Amino acid sequence: MNHTEAPISITVKTAAGSLVTVRASSGEELDQVVALALASITSATQELESAVRGTVSPMSTAQVAQSLGAHIVENHPTSAPATSIPSIGGRGCPHGKMTAIQGTGKDGRIYRGYFCPAPKGALDKCKNQYVNAGSPEWSTFVPDQVK
Question: Does pTM surpass 0.90?
């Protein structure tokens, strides 16, 4: 045993797996330390475990600046999301301008639609948006590609 450590110690494992150790020189001191520190240890452990799990609310930009003793000079996004940018002659999705494609399906019928520019097989690829035959958009559809 290291000579700087108290001769009595209790280590408790929390439900999340954190270890909390309390040390004392005597049984009486241990009782007092445990009684006084129990609430503090519980609170600190819960806060630490929440932070590790990522359940603590993220700080706002203003809170980060304040904690660093800084101030915000400018606070606006560098660009608007792709969905809010109007697309001339087409449609957009979160991945950018959708590709307007006209082609002939396996059944021989012509299709017209807009296709997400995300790579093939991407998990977040948007659904194809087909134009209904007979709709006003069908007759004004200008394809980027013909298949």
Answer: no
